[in-house]
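seq as requested:
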Amino acid sequence: MKRRNRTGSRIFRGSLVTLLLLAAAGAFIRWNGVSRTPGQWWYPFIPALFSDHYTAGPFAMTSNTREDNPVWSQIAGFNRMQARLSYVATRGEPRAQVAWLLADAEWKDQPVFPSHALSPNKLESSTSKALTAAAVEYDRISRRDLVQATAEGSTLVVGHARYEALLISDLHVATPELLQNVLTLARQGVPIVWLGDFPARAAGWADHARRDAAVRSQVERLRGMVLHCASDAELPGGCGNLRQRAALAPADGSAMPLRMHRRLLGNEQFLLLFNESDRPVANRFVADHRVRFADLLNPETGDIEPLEVVPMATATELRIAVPARRTRVLHLTTGAGRADADAPAPTTRWDVEAWHSPPRSMHPFVRWWWPGNAVEQDELRRELNSLHAAGFGGVELQTLTLGFTFDELRKDHDRIYQVGTPAYFDNLLAVFREAERLGMTVDLTLGSGWSSGGPFIERSPSQQLLMASVDARGPASIDIALPVAQEPWYA
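struct tokens:
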């Protein structure tokens, strides 16, 4: 839809524009709300030539969803579903079985340009697919995480997270310090699965002869203390028998057809189950033998379906159905009843009413773009109320001039470039007061240079990284000196 020019300064109704951005992997959705300027439609992106999409580059990557678009009426239900999932995702603590070392020290990414339908997890590694098929949940941990990891009995402790096993793969170079801690963890009884080749040398050039020799010596000691897998195919069964650690798995021993994420809350478990296929799943599954109650929660409707719990010798059997391309939440309760003596704190305990009607703080936010300060308070209040009715929990306010022609910038120069003036802060105050009345949150960004952008940052410095960190444990009032920043680490 092209920009429509009008005369006068009246703000037209139906002016909200919501841009929907899908990540390459389909992992997240970003909402961008655009406020109307006086007398015209304003979009920060130009229209694509062959579709109703908008583009921030050569390819159409955003879609226009105005208030007069039929899709707008469905956004409130979609946001309510997201709010229910957010509510579940804030109950208790996440719990994965396996900590998997991210040996590359970077998350490699590449653009995907879908021509038709998205292909979920197209770039997923064979190792991840093998773990998923075995119903094994994992977290990726860094080299630094592994160097600092400890053990409590046979449990691996990384920060506040606890794991039943450690998986190491693609570690072609390593520091002696990292391997020494892996040896320590193995001696303490942490199950360690090593996939593929062991490292042949140390990282870096400084003192490399001595460090390479140390790595070779440590590798020889590790060979007899870890479970070695030659390929991904060995992961589910014989190598570490990771399938036995699954919180939920098909009863017939077949590959897990659902993606799963687990959270623990006292004697309760919440398992997020996502069916990413085009076929419905209706299978028998086995879970912990201590399960006494099981409910299947539908985030789209809020419905709660009690499931029949069939006790077995070493497990509990459940029949679970998840439609194609849909998510369900499995709520499991162990022990004699639904209440536990060690009840969670009120801020994290499970509340059925909050599941049906999640608090506004659980609802998605929208990034709200203003054309500088060329806005009207009445229109801002109207748009904020429209966002509230659409199920948004808050806004992140950002001023932009992107999308304006030079003529438009010159014409409305005095209003657009008022950001930071008393008139701008008057508009902010009106928004803050209306948001407070609606129970919404407002995040304010001051400037649009992003983390490494702007004319004051040249190309070379923008490509460098200096980092320093220090861990602090609270609650406490502390005074810590900042450490000296270190150069990036390269293998």
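Residues 396 and 443 are 4 Å apart (CA to CA).
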